[in-house]
Records
---
Amino acid sequence: MDLSRRRMGLTLGFLAFISLFQVLFIIPVVFAQTTNDELRQRHAEGYCSMYDICGNRSDGKVLNCPYGSPAVKPDELLSSKIQSLCPTITGNVCCTGAQFDTLRAQVQQAIPFLVGCPACLRNFLNLFCELSCSPNQSLFINVTSVSKVRNNLTVDGIDFYITDAFGEGLYESCKDVKFGTMNTRAIEFIGFGAKNFKEWFAFIGKRAVLNMPGSPYGIQFLPTVPESSGMKPMNVSTYSCRDVSLGCSCGDCPSSPVCSNTAMSSYHKGATCLLRIGSLKAKCVDLALAILYIVLISMFFGWGLFHRTRKRSRSFRMKPFLGTAHGVDSHSINRPKAENLPMQRLEDANQSSTGVQLSIVQGYMSNFYRKYGLWVARNPTLVLSLSVGMILLLCLGLIRFKVETRPAKLWVGPGSKAAEEKRFFDSHLSPFYRIEQLILATIPDALHGKSPSIMTEENIKLLFEIQKKVDGIQANYSGSMISLTDICMKPMGQDCATQSVIQYFKMDPSFDADDRLEHVNYCLQHYTSAESCMSAFKAPLDPSTVLGGFFGSNYTEASAFIVTYPVNNALDKEGNETQKVVAWEKAFIQVAKDELLPMVQSKNLTFSFSSESSIEEELKRESTADVITILISYLVMFAYISLTLGDTPRLSSFYISSKVLLGLSGVLLVMVSVLGSVGFFSAIGVKSTLIIMEVIPFLVLAVGVDNMCILVHAVKRQPLDLPLEGRISNALVEVGPSITLASLSEVLAFAVGSFIPMPACRVFSMFAGLYSIGIHGKMIFFYVTSVIPLTSMHSIAALAILLDFLLQVTAFVSLIVFDFLRAEGRRVDCFPCIKVSSTYAESTIGIGGRKPGLLARYMKALSTRIEPGLEQKIVLPQDSYLQGYFNNVSEYLRIGPPLYFVVKNYNYSSESIDTNQLCSISQCSSDSLLNEIARASLTPESSYIARPAASWLDDFLVWISPEAFSCCRKFTNGTYCPPDDQPPCCSANNGPCGLSEVCKDCTMCFHHSDLHNDRPSTAQFKEKLPWFLDALPSADCSKGGHGAYTSSVELKGYENGVIQASSFRTYHTPLNKQIDYVNSMRAARQFASRVSDSLKMEIFPYSVFYMFFEQYLDIWRTALINLAIAIGAVFIVCLVITCSLWSSAIILLVLAMIVIDLMGVMAVLRIQLNAVSVVNLVMASGIAVEFCVHITHAFSVSSGDKDERVKEALGTMGASVFSGITLTKLVGVLVLCFSRTQVFVVYYFQMYLALVLLGFFHGLVFLPVMLNMFGPPSRCVKIEKQEERPSVSSQP
């Protein structure tokens, strides 16, 4: 909606040229004809039907004389003039010198529109030349009525007999000719958008009412003449635009032979393979995948059934023999009860006949954790002090803590191609203007759901009232009062380029119109031609920019008014100009909320609004929108952690057995790990982002709570007859390797984000792990657009997880020692100074005498049933005023964002071919840039290009051409001479312009002999380009470049023959969905790349939203690569630590399934793939490790057959995984469904809930089945009895 540039190209006079155009058709004025008995016409060769001018209408339009006189031989001067314009007219003529001058004056306004296609121009001129001056005029013109003007008979109506062949040839040669300044076709101006030659002739021949453009009398175009009339239709030969010798460009004549060879396949969507199955259609790829899935599932179940049948058969054959030989159950051979842990057998080897054969890495880790556990248990104070000291040292970096709030810095990487292109565009041409917008719409009918038309007298009056309010806004900036007129964009230097329906009234409520509604309806159809409909800033106003909710060109059915205020933008965001604008924008929003909203709603209309700074302001407000939700999340998690860490609640001992203080300490440790991570990166100069506290709960959910529960439960499982230091040591030996494996896997998974080429993802990893996702997810959808700041964060997340792990195995283990000492000393939780006398023994039963907990019993029951087998406004607060605005933008806008094709280093010298490789007029290359853009606009559904481009180069070449003889002119002293309808040639007042004494000696800049193949030399180009860019458009010359192209060409350094930067403007098609923005950017880049390679020139596309959507071009590639790296890193860590390819492969498979299933959930819930969801997927690969590593590790160190080992792994580690991982995450995530910000609901509540449930089912249901069927062999091996030794001694 390039409101500024798109209309700046035409002034009030421009409007006139259209009306004059129809005066062109009016040129029939030039025809004289007689139909009464006194002036009987003679229809024969050499006779006229109209000759000379006999009067004028009251509005000044001239009227011809109806004289059927013989054609007259012109003098030599008139003959040469007629030949120059009408080469087909020779010999006698039916026009006087005055008539020809009128003809010439009128057609000169049409020439700039049509000169790009000589065939069209020639046909168009022939029509009016024959009508005005043909010596055989009476053969095809019949005057049907006359009227008296000041006692003179004048023509009042005629029949013009013309063959359909001529009409068809004329229309076909002109229908595709472009008018670049307005990004549309010339036929829209000179033919009212006619769809065929009959509609065009009807438009030309319509009698105009007074003071309106059009013919002064009616012209009826007829294909056949009356019998016995002696007449015959005019049938001058027409020129085809396909005639290569006439040089019509491909943009003006797509059917030209030189254009048809250009392949257009790149614009068409690739063919999709579809198969029909009954009434259903299915893509070949989808069907193939479905078949593959069914085959794999069938093979899996078949193998499982075969395995189970063979196992039962073998068991049946072996049972009698075993019973006879040993007299005992086969599951009871030298094996302790199933409740006993593998680690107990590891430590108490003298009471067992089995041991665990660990990998080298696990062996070292077990030895380390055994010795380390003893040392920590004996020195808890020292360990806790060192841990706290280390984290406090890292937190000192918070002194340099800074928050990055600039969207471009948050969302776009420094090496971003789109960011570089934006910087080039802003610095070499001009920054894109700011937009302030209001949308008023009718309310849909409750019965049929259809919105009524908004075009009523009352609603137009409402627009004037709203405009008065907006004009009255005064914003205080540094003591100065800023109003809209101080900051608005003024393409013609006087009036604001406001886009509103009331521009049809010149923004003047007192505009003289008998019926406002009728005037608006008239302007909607004649906005390009009626002077009374010209905007206050002197350019036509396209209805599609100010109306919405209509289809096609049915403007009267529009259900919305769209009011847009383009405001000047500054290159330096910190500059005073921008600050002034921001101050006014804040006042504008406040007035919209307080005054305009009630005013519009009182009229039973909906109202939405936005300013350029609205998104940033709403994000700042959003940062505090969910404080209560986050606090509740903390409290819920804290309460659950305290409950799950403690023993089964008993009223008599709850105040001793509870773990409230331990749980609170654990949560604080997780928080300080994040602070330490942020402090470290702040110290090295990495800026943070907003809303840190919003994401800390997710970090707690991801890693902190899980390991705390596993550690505490492991200690509780140890026999009470062991000393506390022995229990701590055994617990660390039991769960230390799996905790280490899970934490290292998470660290690597998050660290992968540091390599994602999106600042959002890098910042995310760095800043607290999961925390920065929140804020940045919010912004991505704003810019309908957007890239989330998550790139520096993956590193911080990785560091935060690493710190959290270190604190858990140091500070938290020390806190466990203190808490168990407190409990054994019968001291009250939270008040350890208070000691009670009640016994604690029954509440601290160890593994030897303690009954299995509820979760452990549930997991054992579940395991008995295990059989081998296989069982996308979102970022804003919901109450934001922008929610309704974005909905309305998607629903009502009928025009897409402006698209610029920027050309670097255009060599305009006469030796270079660059000019013909860019332009699209006569003699330009068929595959030139502008011709290719025009060709692409023919397939907007795939190219996303809506219109041909506005070309300063085409208009410049036309402006200097001899055919456009009223455009490029010079005084006798060589300086620029404007057209005759502009000062100083014409008075500045509104009176008619005649031949001025000032400009009577002005001459054309060039004759054909001065140009080489109609192209200027290097010196001529260099001299006249500044003239063109300063020339105002008007009726006599619509091609002036001032306003339309002021910022399209960089003149700095152009004297050396090279223009460093220039742009050609077109528009994208309306973009309503995120995928539309992505696809349009991809299509534009592919188009520019192809054309650049073809022309050997540097060309790139630019639109204001590209910078925010660049990340999505390769989002799938980025997501898949990072997921592969993350899962691969987890696999390598597992392989290194376990030295078991078998176990690592199973973990890899389960992780991949969880991630793939999570992506499936995203598809079902319509969650879009973006930086937030990519980060969530990468994190899921790390978090999901927790659901399977612990179970797999417990399974590998258990003894017995696979059924027993699965039961034992679920009965021991399954309970910790379920309570410490599944339920902990679940309670924290559930709170987020009450968030006021949709980004939390969609990307955290929905995705994390899905992750937790998928992790639970895969880790505690599917994984045990996999282990039962395909699990690795046990690491337990038979060993001989050894002498008695302490359970905390070295590993055997």
Note: The first strand starts at residue 53 and ends at 56.
---
Amino acid sequence: MSSIYAALMLWSALLMCFSYYLEDTIFHGTIYAWFVGIPLITFAVYKKEKYQYDLLLMNINKAEDPNQIVLLTNYIQKLLSRYQTNQHFQIMLDALIEVHKNTCQKEDCVFRIKKQLNQRMKKLKDENISQRDYQIQQLLGEIYQGFIRRHQNNVKLRINYAFYLLDFLKQKQQSLNEFNQIEFLSPSLDNEFIIFRYKKIIEEEMNIMQNESINGNQDIASELAFQNNMRQFQNKIERATLMHMDFWSQLQEDSPDLGKMNEIGYKINLAILQVEDLWNKMQKLTQNLPKAMRLYAKFIIEVLQDKDFGEELLEKSKMLQNQNNKMKNKQTIQIFSSDDINFEPLPTLLVQTSSDKFAQICNLNLSLCNLLGYQKTELLNRKINLLIPQIYAKFHDNYLEMFLQSNDQQKISKERLIYVKLKSGYIMPCYLYMKALQSYDENILIAAQFRTLRTFKTGCYLILDSDEAIECISSSCICNLFIDQKMISHRKIYFHELFPNYNRNEYLNKSGCVISLNLLSNIVQNSNYLQYYISDLEDQTQILFQIQITEIQNEHLDQVMGYVIKLEKVANEYSQILSPDVQQQLVIPNSSLSNFQFKYFPAKGLYLGENQDEGNSARVDQTVIWEQSSRLSEETQAEKKEKVEEVKVEKINYAEGIRTLKLFDNRIQDIEDIRMSFTESDEVQHSSVFQKNQDNQDDFEQGRTNNVFRNRKTLNSTINDQQRPKVIVYLSWTINILMLTVLTLSFTSYFLGLQLFENVQNSLNLIKYASQRNQECTQIVMNIQNLEMLRIGIWNLTESEALQYEEEQRMELNNSIFELKDANKKIMLNDLYINEQIEELHSKSVINVRISQNNFAYYDLIEATQQIISKALIVKDKPLNNLTLDDEDATFITYNLHNGVIFQYRNETSQYSLGIQDISENNINIFFIFMIVAASSFFILLLILIILIIQINQIQEQILQLFMDIPEKTVKYLYNKSENFISNLQVGEEEEVSSDFSEEEQDEIKELSRTLKSKRKKKIFKNTNQSHRTQILVITFILFAFQGYFLLNYFLNQVTYNNIKQQIPELNVTARCGSYYRLVDNGERQLFLNREEPILLGDAYSVVMNNIQLNYDVDSDLHQEHAKNSEIMNSDYYNTFQQIFMLNPCEKFFEQGFTTVEYCETFANGSIQQGMAVAIARFFENVRYIMTIYDMFYGHPEVNFSVAARGWGRFRNITQNSDNVTNYIYNLNNFKQTKESRVMQNVFIKAAFRYLLDEFVKTLKSDIEMTQTQLLAVFIVFEVLIFFVYFIVWLPGEIKMTRDIQRTKGLILMIPLRVIQKIKTIKEFISFLVHSQDK
């Protein structure tokens, strides 16, 4: 239930987040999705639990999917951790055990075996782990091991197994090894993080736990890791030495390649760092590593030329070696795995304790084969009882099981005397030392090592059973008791038959007792050996022996199983009994049974070795002779070591550390420095950035410089100073300036581009507001004209219809006033600068407004519009009877909106269009300037960067040139030193290096010192290092990429602004069309009302006729501009234009709320349905036709109205007088064409051009937003590129260049101090470094 509850909570949280961001945006009904998801989530969780039941019932032996095994093991561990508080889990575990018992096919199944637990089990038992829990954990181990063998590349399975090794088995090293192997399987990023984290944790814990004292013991895995590290350590030292040889060899050439020398020097530094890191790692594992320390010291002295530190390590290694020599008797077995047994000098074997191979021999060395007389294959996988006398073999398994139960390490670690059974059947007394080893499969291996006895008296050994019958004898019984193995195997021989006076109770556990062998007994007399060893049988009747009897007890059963008897001949009896010939015969066989094994130490000129018994085999184990640790006989080796140390005479250099000082030039100086100052005055001066004039340095600086050359540690700190070189500092500042420049230009160009685009968008809004204001002004004029005509009675309406019509006109007038006021307010509040003309119209009184009949005043356009709004509000509330043609308020509006104000409205719209074009052109120029500034800045910075990179390369080159001043003999000497070291290392010599040089070396050094004082011929060098060229190319490419951003930025902006410029004329025509067509219609109606009132400051009739003609020009301009922009125009607006002008626009008009579809499609004989292009043409023809009729009526009262009207209108005497012309003209307003034009203009043309203008502005803004999105994407990519270049390319590159210079400087440490002191150029360079550090 808890899982279902958690799943429901998660589902609810996800749906809440989903609804918060997406509800009512792109999705509706989140609550329904939540309800639908509840049963699905519940079912999914229930099925998951059911699937886990299936996992427990799964037959593990037939499973193939490793993912199922991962789920199974995780679930079993979950059950183990929670079954104590959940009875259901406990039942499930019991079921798991029963299922596994029935399906397991292995004989050693963990739930079937009844043998005792091994060491690891016992350790876990101490932690209150129940038998069942441990068995389940063992089952997990079997599952992991079985499936890992089949699915070795499954990362998740192996990670779980590594956690199993770490958490349950507590095997940190094995777990670490498993993590190391998983790394080679290309794990995913999350698994890589897990592996890295746990590896670090395990290594830290192991370093803390295993940093033991000198006499402490390491576990097996740690020792194996140390041995592996030791091999790697030696390989890395060998590799570093070979690189040194390659460096000195390159320097010996006639034309050294500085580039190759620098490359080799780089590799040398890396190799030295690897050696140091591995050395530090080995020190963390253990501090007891004299062999590795001695090797490292020799490497430092011979190769790295650091004599002081090397000798310090040598002294420390000597101290550790002496301590180890004192402690080495405490432990003899040095193996830690089955593979190491071949390196053991003493006879050694390994015994398994696992249930399937209990007490079987799993490995042994050849030394044991020589001892026992067996072939190696004869003993492998055989029980250890084969090598044990039968009386011991009966209860040996019980002893082994008792040890596994008790885990008493101290009991088996003590050396004891045992009797081993040879292949011939004889027994041999040996000292046995045992050690418990932990194997990787969780089982214990018993390592047993045998050491033969050193006997100085003639004797033999017998083993008696509880009835005192002889069961086993040693081979020496043949010559002492005259019996062999065949005799005791054919019949039972009791001990008292040989020794009649034997009484066990008298001799038991006593020493020094004497017993006599009866030579007259039947057994002795019937022996074939008696005649070979006894010359005078008549005189000899007995032989005296010292006897020692020990009981053989079975501690498990607490009973005596038999007895061990040791017999030694009484002193002086040997020479009396045996004749000289027999003695000679006895010596020869004995000499053939020993072998002198030795090891030669070249450095000391000594052989160390001892005689070793071969047993019954003549084979010699080479591992015994050449084993690395040369563990032969501890006592003998220690004694000879002490003798060698006593004989060794060390040559003491009493002059070491003594310096001769002299007061010279008011300073205390080393006399060698004074001599060098004279000898160096004749050397050739080299031009270098490091050669500075030192004449003005003070005494302190000079003394400090001299101390640098006398102390290797001080020289090392001076050379490896972490201070950044100045050229790197300059380069860093240049790069920082470059990055700041790029960031500044990119951010400025991007955000300035956003601002410029915003200005263009606001300008487009201004065009829309200005067009809206023009249309609303013409709408106000039309409403006032309609009210005036209603007062005159032109409209043929009933009284109620007239009231309704008046109400509609006043409402339309009110709406137009409101929209005019809103548009004028938006224009007034906008502070965007377009051009001077717009500013003049909005801020200066340039518009001549007629206040009354003969009264004019000047206003700006905003004020003039406010005046019109105020007058329109008055007219809106004025009674209809007061709206005469002479009304000042109505006349104010009609006159000004037909003359001065309308002129400026049209001028304002045109200026807005021109201003946007100018803004677009200026914006293009701005981005062009950005591009030029960026290109100029990048070019200048590129030149600076190239100069600095060349200087860095010159610095490295000049440092490498210092090596050219080293004499060839010195170079050859250093090469030979490295070569000798690598030769000794490969041979495997272990001698300790003395801190003093031999006489031969001292002579060579003196010879080198004399050659250093002579003049040296400068070598011609070459430099194939092309890294600086690569760096210059990379920087150039990056700067071109940076410049590419500004080019792309300029290109995107240029394309967008050019498109806007090209479309602005069409936008201007579209914005003017609606108001212009209304102006033409209003002008015609105003002509009908008052021909005397001017229109557009001209004759009303002429202007109206001209405007009618201009209708066609405006419409033609609109279509021409649209055709020009068809390729660059937004597809949405292009489709909208086609829908309005060429297709049926009724659906669009209905969507905008202007009319109904039915009315639209039937109006004007369906002309609207055919597209506004047809409708507008019909509108033009109607207006032109009405003016044609007007021409027939005006000034011709005699015209027959009916004939002229042709049925399109009906005459009404509107004026109620005989003025036919006026009546004819007033009746023109009721013509069908006039009504149709009025409706078409008021509904369809107004709707069409308002919709087109809105869509046009909207699509232009959409194009701008699209460009902004593209610029944003490019800007983000560019900023990421800047981040990548600076943090991923430059910062690591700066560190690399700094390290390259430091590593190149560090190559100087390869030169010995005595050579540095003799070369002026190197000294001057180091002095320059000291001087730079002081600054």
Note: The longest helix spans residues 1232-1306.
